[in-house]
Design brief:
Length: 480
């Protein structure tokens, strides 16, 4: 039998399957590589096709953000070669993720209340209050359990040395967890033999932990009524909204299904109004409440913020958490950890240049061809310049954007993200990956073992977002 990876050529970046070449596999990968070799490339391709059909049957699709009413549903491209993370590595990552979210939560509570971190000169007031995620409506507010962010998904990458870094924080409405869960179901159904003889941490407890986290927010009752608020079927993540609601056994609702009355929120039912205690909202702040945010929103519930601030309903996550998604605020997280916890950061940030500062801006403008430049409030791979892969005109265009609005941009070195073998058009080749673990914070904190590994399936691409041609693969945390 021909060795499946005989023609595979790792890149210069850190390959998570092989050290230097296909004859030097990483020890933790040897059992999996043996199983794959016994399977053979032909059978792997057949099973890959079966996996796509299974995902379609399950409805695991997404809609591109700019397709509107004419948009078509697409299966999120799935790669069958799992990513492997050792238990020892995971212990460190889990500790680092909990540390980071604890500090960010303390930061959120601080800036909307006493503002000590601003008054002590750690973070400039102008950077906080100029952020698109800043919500002055939340000043003076204390959320249930004194926690602002119950559900988060942080993006991690490994550099060419194999060291882990946090690339971005996602606290508003982090997505992708349904695909994370579906990937494991597909692997168990289509590739059961790959699990034989190895211990892979289970992930199917996520919905029950999510439900428990939401239930704990209703501190006024032991039997809370919980709903998931979605923008509707044309949202790119609607599959995930319906999937999670079904898994938790809660109702999926839209804004017109709810009404605020006498400082409470009610669900409209055929038997009358039923009080709602907790809302897992998948709508951005701007559209959540037309009375307090965008007046033209048809997606939210008028008066919802007032009921939340009165303490008669819980929202996950709290409005205002989006300021921590600001890529400029991200650069201050190591200082937050030191300031609030008096600890050194466990998972480091990527080196970041803040274009708001003249010295950083001058360096960025002189080195645009070498850097990755990001708009601080954009997501999904949009509003970004990858210098080494850009044309002269694209670089000039971004230079003008930075000069016009420096607060809106940060820059980072062009990192060689780690690679994992991936299957595309019947061939195996190294693709760059990131990792989005999911962290739940109720009375306690819980981190999903592994997370959603996103793959840049276009050869040579560094962009893993599904809207930019990326896909995903199952992530295994292995070991006793």
């Amino acid at each position: 039998m021909k060795y499946m990876f005989s023609s595979y050529q790792p890149k210069n970046s850190f390959d998570e399957y092989f050290k230097d070449n296909v004859n030097s596999a990483r020890e933790i990968l040897i059992p999996l590589l043996s199983s794959l070799d016994n399977m053979g490339l032909e059978e792997l391709n057949r099973n890959h096709s079966a996996a796509k059909k299974l995902l379609l049957r399950h409805g695991a699709t997404f809609r591109l953000n700019d397709t509107g009413l004419k948009g078509t549903e697409r299966i999120l491209p799935f790669d069958p070669l799992p990513r492997i993370i050792s238990k020892d590595d995971w212990v460190t990552l889990e500790k680092g993720l909990k540390q980071r979210l604890e500090a960010i939560d303390l930061f959120l509570d601080d800036i909307y209340n006493s503002q000590k971190i601003i008054n002590d000169g750690i973070i400039p007031r102008e950077l906080v209050e100029s952020s698109e995620g800043w919500r002055p409506q939340m000043i003076g507010f204390k959320p249930p359990l004194n926690k602002w962010c119950q559900i988060s998904g942080l993006d991690l990458i490994r550099d060419r040395k194999g060291d882990w870094h946090v690339l971005e924080d996602n606290l508003r409405c982090p997505s992708g967890v349904a695909y994370f869960l579906e990937n494991r179901l597909v692997m168990k159904n289509i590739f059961p033999n790959l699990f034989s003889g190895r211990i892979v941490k289970p992930i199917d407890e996520y919905p029950s932990y999510l439900l428990k986290t939401l239930q704990e927010l209703a501190v006024w009752t032991d039997t809370p009524k919980i709903v998931l608020l979605t923008p509707g079927i044309f949202n790119s993540a609607y599959f995930e909204h319906s999937y999670l609601a079904q898994e938790m056994g809660i109702q999926l609702v839209q804004g017109h299904d709810l009404i605020c009355n006498d400082d409470y929120v009610y669900l409209k039912t055929t038997s009358g109004l039923k009080r709602v205690d907790v809302i897992y909202r998948r709508i951005d702040d701007d559209f959540l409440d037309p009375l307090n945010f965008r007046k033209d929103s048809c997606l939210g519930v008028s008066g919802l913020l007032d009921v939340f601030k009165a303490g008669h309903v819980a929202l996950a996550n709290a409005p205002g958490t989006g300021i921590a998604d600001d890529k400029m605020i991200y650069s201050f997280v190591p200082k937050m950890i030191k300031y609030y916890l008096d600890e050194e950061i466990i998972i480091k940030n990527v080196e970041t240049y803040i274009c708001h500062y003249q010295k950083d801006r001058e360096y960025v403008l002189e080195n645009l061809s070498k850097l990755v430049v990001k708009s601080v409030a954009e997501a999904g791979g949009y509003g970004m310049l990858i210098g080494p892969h850009s044309t002269t005109s694209e670089i000039e265009e971004f230079a003008n954007k930075i000069k016009k609005n420096p607060r809106n941009f940060i820059a980072q070195p062009t990192l060689e993200l780690s690679t994992v073998p991936s299957l595309c058009d019947g061939e195996l080749y190294p693709c760059h990956v990131d990792l989005r673990p999911y962290i739940l914070r109720g009375k306690d904190s819980w981190v999903s073992p592994g997370g959603l590994t996103r793959v840049a399936l276009k050869k040579g691409s560094l962009v893993v977002n599904s809207s930019q041609g990326g896909g995903c693969k199952d992530t295994w945390v292995v070991g006793k």
